[in-house]
Design goal:
Layout (H helix, E strand, L loop, with lengths): L5 H9 L5 H13 L15 E2 L5 E5 L7 H4 L7 H12 L20 E5 L12 H17 L5 E5 H12 L10 E4 L2 E6 L4 H4 L6 H15 L1
Parallel strand pairs: 2-3, 2-4, 4-6
Antiparallel strand pairs: 1-3, 5-6
Helix pairs in contact: 4-8, 5-6
This protein binds iron/sulfur cluster.
The site of iron/sulfur cluster has 15 residues, from helix 2 and helix 5.
């Protein structure tokens, strides 16, 4: 399906119910499983960023108490501190950290989204759910006319982006493929699992971001 702009895509996304398991989990967390004393978003989480983005960063899915709480990708959780903090270091974000949808975050040349737009239980998604939400990822890519780089964080994001770009590729850290005018770059996901164990250091993460941004510029 073709959309006129990101706003139109977001309207469809917000009403999406293609993955009942994920919708139920997102809503259950928002209604009955809150860890933060505030209203949770609990709906599909739309992408966010610069409509003239040259680089798109794709994560796995909103975290149950991160994006699913705040309603914006990489906002309000540990992974977000790395993603937005890293962009700040490169001069691509006006804030070091995203905390809420109304925090005034502005990204320059970058768009943030996820392979799957609804929070999954235990951060595990099924193949059919990746396929379902790849339609939204494809639509986002089509709307970002200046896009040159997709930085895919982890195996699920890489798999989904490969699928959308029409190539069969397995994930690799700093693996790069050039497909139809777009560089697909893989990186370890800056999740606490990877950052706290040392698989991905802050210096390496900045190196990944600088490399991807250089390809986009
Ligand atoms: S994960 Fe994507 S496809 Fe599935 S219900 Fe949420 S928005 Fe729809």
């Amino acid at each position: 399906m073709k959309y006129a702009d990101i706003s139109e895509l977001n309207r469809v996304l917000l009403a999406c119910n293609l993955c009942p398991r994920l919708r139920k989990f997102s809503e259950d967390v928002a209604l009955n499983g809150r860890k933060f004393n505030q209203e949770y978003w609990g709906k599909p989480v739309p992408g966010f960023g610069d409509p003239r983005a040259k680089m798109m960063i794709v994560g796995l899915a909103p975290a149950a108490h991160g994006g699913n709480r705040t309603g914006r990708p990489f906002t309000g959780d540990e992974t977000g501190k790395w993603v937005i903090g890293g962009l700040y270091e490169l001069g691509l974000s006006n804030l070091r950290e995203g905390v809420s949808r109304d925090d005034g975050l502005v990204l320059r040349g970058v768009f943030l989204t996820n392979a799957v737009s609804c929070a999954p239980p235990k951060n595990v998604v099924k193949t059919q759910e990746i396929l379902n939400c790849s339609t939204h990822l494809r639509a986002t890519i089509e709307l970002l006319k200046d896009l040159k780089v997709i930085l895919a964080l982890g195996t699920v994001a890489f798999k989904s982006a490969s699928l959308v770009l029409g190539v069969k590729e397995t994930f690799g850290h700093l693996k790069v493929r050039f497909v139809n005018g777009i560089y697909l770059v893989g990186s370890y996901h800056p999740s606490p699992l990877n950052t706290r164990t040392g698989r991905l250091s802050w210096e390496e993460w900045l190196r990944v971001l600088r490399y991807a941004w250089k390809l986009a510029s």
